[in-house]
Write a structure and sequence with these properties.
Layout: H1 18-40, H2 50-92, H3 99-123, H4 127-132, H5 134-160
Helix pairs in contact: 1-2, 2-3, 2-5, 3-5
Length: 161
């Protein structure tokens, strides 16, 4: 049986998902590239250590793009939840909404809509453009998350009224 090939199926347990395997591979790749960069500093060929460093920077860009994609997927749910928590009850509100709360809600709604438009435009970009705009996309995602987080105290205040 020495010539038999052993083929394993999916080795992921139900507790770990495919993203855990991807993270492990990325971490291992990073470690190998960092080690290679350190080792290649001692080679008599100048700047040979820059090859793994360049690959490390591309790996960082890939991770950021991947994180942006994952965050964008969850962002729709967060915004939808914020609308259900804040804006929908206000539409059903039968009493007088205090002007300071109404103004604050309108401002948040306007800012949130502007950020969402910008994110939708960024999501439609091709991969090459998303690579160039990776930092801007991250900032837009964080801005929307911050805006949604700011709605949480308003939600608590509305529940008290």
């Amino acid at each position: 049986m020495p010539n038999e090939r052993i083929i394993h199926g999916n080795t992921e347990s139900p507790a770990t998902g495919p993203s855990d395997g991807k993270k492990t591979i990325i971490a291992a790749t990073r470690l190998v590239l960092q080690t290679a960069a350190s080792a290649l500093k001692f080679v008599p060929i100048p700047n040979l250590d820059q090859i793994p460093n360049i690959l490390l920077s591309w790996l960082q860009v890939y991770e950021t793009i991947d994180n942006n994609d994952e965050n964008l997927k969850g962002l729709d749910d967060e915004v939808r939840e914020a609308h259900e928590t804040i804006f929908r009850p206000l539409l059903l509100w039968t009493g007088q909404v205090p002007p300071e709360i109404g103004d604050l809600i309108q401002q948040f709604n306007l800012v949130l809509k502007q950020h969402l438009k910008q994110i939708e435009a960024l999501k439609r970009q091709k991969l090459a453009k998303r690579i160039i705009l990776v930092t801007e996309i991250s900032q837009q995602i964080n801005a929307v998350k911050f805006c949604v987080a700011m709605l949480s105290p308003v939600s608590r205040l509305l529940r008290q009224l």
